[in-house]
């Protein structure tokens, strides 16, 4: 197989999503090989360790053991990027972390010709300036053919085709007037299980622990409960829709973090103390039940007024949002073309495998663009 048919893959972050991604990479590698494209895993990295053997291909099924047993202390991330930029083949960097510093270096990575696929929301929902720099440095932005490509489907709705759908609506000339729905797998799971239609449900704090165990929450679940994870997703969608949203804190975001726990120092301490506030959530449940309703955590973007909001809302039991199950997201695109019947996307919005699917799908898009 000629060198030009070879593409190097470097994986940073091997938690819930990263592990599932490695499994899917193995499957994709076998498929691509039949099409004469060789995907070679050449680097794996976690927070403190890195395994890299001068671009020698790693056995994907052994990569995690190699990292943990034979990996070296991770060098500064910038050094790793400089090494990857010298690769004899095209490189795709898969960022499966939620690291802000890695996210901030995307423009530099792309301008060195390295492509990026990622579920990390940080870069795309930070300042508008960083957003502009990323797409000014990307071959699928305005950066030119020597730059890398960037795709981030799993930053909204995990593997659900939310970003690709919104882009296609816009690129084919539709006018998006409103985007609304449930954008968090964690929040969906919490309210569906703590406040199900018809009554009952577990303690709120116990459901938060379950959501973490199921791999739905951010590494620190406070990033879900403070509404910021949903605010980041809405910032990303609003920007794709053409709104110059400056940051995920530039519009109203309702937090579910009890005032008394705002200053606790760690996620573990937060989870330990959260049961003390279950009564407050029970009150919320009872007051909605008195009106025959349930509460859900939703978000919306109104394009004409440029209004974005994130928070709790009450719904009748018959509403599709009230009837969601598990970690399901539901996202409605109201557009000129779709008229009074919105285009609706629904399905699991969190979890390792479904999130990795969006990342692997993005990797495939880059592979096709590079060939
Ligand atoms: N889980 C989900 O359902 C979804 C997640 N996402 C996004 O996917 C990303 C990963 O989530 P998830 O897998 O659940 O998170 P995890 O906490 O399970 O895994 C994070 C991984 O990133 C590694 N990591 C953290 N910081 C660094 C760093 N500076 N350098 C190298 N590696 C680092 C961690 O290292 P170590 O192993 O050493 O701790 C770990 O392997 C996040 O951005 C999240 O927002 C998006 C959609 C859905
Ligand atoms: N924590 C997030 C993970 C996916 O983006 C969520 O619960 O939706
Ligand atoms: Na998605």
Describe the model.
Residues 161-364 form the Homoserine dehydrogenase catalytic domain. Pfam families: Homoserine_dh, NAD_binding_3. NADP(+) binds at residues 13-18. This protein has 371 residues and is an alpha/beta fold. The chain folds into two domains: 3-158 and 354-370, 3-Layer(aba) Sandwich (Rossmann fold), CATH 3.40.50; 162-349, Dihydrodipicolinate Reductase, domain 2 (2-Layer Sandwich), CATH 3.30.360.10. Helix content is 39%, strand content 20%. It has 15 helices and twelve strands. It has helices at 16-34, 63-70, 77-85, 100-104, 106-111, 122-125, 128-136, 162-171, 185-194, 204-213, 222-225, 228-240, 267-273, 278-290, 352-370; strands at 6-12, 38-45, 49-52, 72-73, 90-95, 115-117, 150-151, 176-182, 293-302, 307-316, 328-335, 343-348. The strands form two sheets. The protein has a seven-stranded mixed sheet. A five-stranded antiparallel sheet has the order 10-9-8-11-12. Helix 1 (16-34) runs parallel beside helix 15. The longest helix has 19 residues, at 16-34. It is globular and about 65 Å long. The mean pLDDT is 97. Residues 158, 184-186, 216-218, 224, 229, 349-350 line the site of the ligand N[C@@H](CC=O)C(=O)O.
């Amino acid at each position: 197989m000629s060198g030009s048919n070879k593409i190097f893959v470097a994986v940073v972050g091997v938690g819930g999503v990263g592990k599932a991604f490695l499994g899917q990479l193995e499957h994709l590698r076998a498929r691509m090989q039949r099409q004469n494209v060789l995907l070679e895993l050449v680097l794996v990295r976690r927070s403190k360790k890195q395994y890299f053997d001068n671009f020698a291909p790693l056995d994907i099924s052994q990569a995690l053991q190699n990292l943990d047993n034979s990996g070296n202390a991770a060098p500064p991330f910038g050094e790793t990027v400089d090494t990857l930029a010298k690769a004899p083949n095209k490189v795709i960097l898969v960022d499966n972390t939620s690291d802000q510093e890695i996210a901030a270096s995307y423009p530099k990575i792309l301008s060195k010709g390295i492509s990026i696929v990622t579920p990390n929301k940080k870069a795309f929902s930070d300042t508008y300036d960083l957003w502009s720099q990323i797409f000014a440095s990307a071959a699928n932005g305005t950066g030119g053919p020597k730059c890398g490509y960037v795709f981030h489907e799993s930053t909204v709705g995990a593997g659900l085709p939310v970003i690709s759908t919104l882009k296609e609506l816009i690129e084919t000339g539709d006018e998006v007037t409103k985007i609304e729905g449930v954008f968090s797998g964690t929040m969906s799971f919490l309210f569906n299980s703590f406040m199900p239609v018809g009554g009952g449900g577990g303690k709120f704090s116990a459901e938060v622990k379950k959501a973490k165990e199921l791999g739905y929450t951010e590494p620190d679940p406070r990033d879900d409960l403070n509404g910021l994870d949903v605010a980041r997703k809405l910032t990303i969608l609003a920007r794709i829709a053409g709104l110059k949203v400056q940051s995920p804190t530039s519009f109203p975001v309702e937090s579910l973090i009890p005032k008394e726990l705002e200053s606790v120092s760690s996620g573990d301490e937060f989870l330990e103390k959260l049961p003390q506030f279950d009564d407050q959530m029970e009150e919320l449940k009872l007051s909605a039940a008195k009106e025959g309703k349930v509460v859900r955590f939703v978000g919306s973007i109104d394009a004409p007024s440029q209004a974005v909001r994130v928070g709790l809302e009450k719904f009748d039991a018959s509403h599709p949002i009230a009837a969601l199950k598990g970690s399901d997201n539901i996202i409605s695109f109201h557009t000129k073309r779709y008229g009074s019947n919105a285009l609706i996307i629904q399905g699991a919005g969190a979890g390792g495998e479904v999130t990795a699917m969006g990342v692997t799908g993005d990797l495939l898009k880059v592979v096709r663009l590079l060939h």
